[in-house]
Every structure is written in C-alpha cells, then in structure tokens.
Amino acid sequence: MRITINIDEKLLANVLEATGEKAKSKAVNAALRDYIRRKHVQELIDYWSKTKADDYDDYSEEGYAAEKRREDFLDSLRDGAAGQSQNDVT
Fold first, then answer.
1. Residue 11 pLDDT class (50, 70, 90 cuts)
2. N- or C-end of the chain: fewer Cβ atoms within 10 A?
C-alpha cells in the first residue's frame, strides 16, 4: 500500500542503519514488524508473570518444577527482549 507520511529524517536514517536495509520502505516495514513482535513478547511476559503453576500443590516437587519452568520461560522472554532493545532506534 502506498501512503504519504512525515518521518523524522534522523529517525529514518537510524532505522535504515539498524535494519541494514537500503530501501526506506523495507526499513520501515522491518521496524514495524519488530515493534509488533516486541509488543507481543511483552504481552506474553505480562500474562505469564501473573500466572502461577496452580495445578500443583505449592509444596510438591511437581509444583516447584512447574514454577521453575514458568520462571525460566519468562527469563528467556525477558533476555530476548533485552537483547533486542540494545538495537533500539531512538
């Protein structure tokens, strides 16, 4: 789809550099895809941060293992999001 929008020149230059794209349209599309992906990752983190492994007795071995898996999953999402944020464009 072709549209006309006003984009800050320095921001667009940063997006071009960060994405490695030569075409402005491809760089903007890559940045938009990345933004949506990060938003979904944050939604997952928020959801799983509120969820506990309630299917198990809190003091059972299975309960501890389930909670550990949940925490490991959240940490992996946070680590992935943090690694990506180092490439953020401002």
1. very high
2. N
DSSP string, 14-25: HHHHHH--SSHH
CA angle 22, 30, 15 (to 5 degrees): 55
Instruction: State whether the Cα torsion 3-17-89-74 is positive or negative.
Output: positive
The predicted model gives 27-41 an average pLDDT of 93
With beta carbons less than 8 A apart as the criterion, state whether 19 and 31 touch: yes
Residue corresponding to tokens 């667009």: 12
Asked whether the CA dihedral 27, 31, 18, 73 is positive or negative, the reply is negative
CA dihedral of residues 59, 61, 63, 65 (deg, nearest 10): 140
